Amino acid sequence: MTTVWMNHWFSTAVNIIELLRKDNPDIHLICTNEHALSVIRNACDEWYQEPVLKDDEYVEFCLEFCQAHGVRVFMPRRGMVSISEHRDRFEKAGVRVMADRYAMVSVLNRKDQAFRFFAEKGIGAVPDYFIVKTAEDFVKAYEELAQKYSQVCFKFVRDEGGKSYRLIDNQRKGYAALFKKQTTRITLEEAVAAFSEREVFAPVMVMPFLSGDEVSVDCLNTKQGLIMLPRVKSYEKYEIFRYDDEIIRLCERFQREAALECPYNIQFKYLDGTPYFLEVNTRMSGGVQMGCLAGGVNLPQIAFRKMIGEETEWQLNRETKIVAQVLQPVLMEPAEETI
Question: At the topology level of CATH, where does 109-124+211-324 sit?
Fold first, then answer.
């Protein structure tokens, strides 16, 4: 029996858990989250609420948790960069960590450094962008990009899940605005007012809005080759899995340069027929289960077996597939102290 720990994963990771458990009964799964009522608690063998810690303090907590609970495979999401930096300490304690080497993880988890890596290695196209830390520089970046592109967007360099992403839309008021999703839209005036509350703020990337398809590719390198599950993201309830030669070549070129050995997700977005690099998440995406269904491969389980020294043969179905995802209600059983 192998004890596996998943720390503070998003709710759709219940699908990753199901794939890990499929035909694999020898897993004892521990999950933790800072939220007491995370739906993940319904899917694991042991559940604990995490303390809210940062950086080195969190690494120490993770090391102590692994030792206290006999963890042998650690699948981190929270604190990925810091945990990667101290991966050798976990390995000395007998814990295998599903995180790549710090030299690459630290680069790929900063959007500006990831853009430079992609461009310097000649992997593919990156969009024009500016990194700003003041309201004045933000306005200058916007004005320069607006001369060349019809729309401009921005997000903090350190971001996950696009929480800080905003599209600058100076027509977000009036009747026409009622038909637009407003949560990610902001006027230039509103953005400048927000940034002006700080003399210097955390680095922000300002870039053109890429209006074409967004393609998210879950990848895992194996002895047999690189597994790639490319999905064209949609605002509808379905996504299209399509193996475009250009996207496949970009992923293969990236893998040759980055040499990642753990699961990762790489994203591209099109503008005028060109796929531009957006970012790499050094973990499985929240939609990896859709790719596994379309491609007929169990990527989470292949990755887990690789961690424990077992190679799994796989065969990928590269036919174009449309996959829909249906939300289902789940009855929670909260601890008494949370009621």
Answer: D-amino Acid Aminotransferase; Chain A, domain 1 (3.30.470)
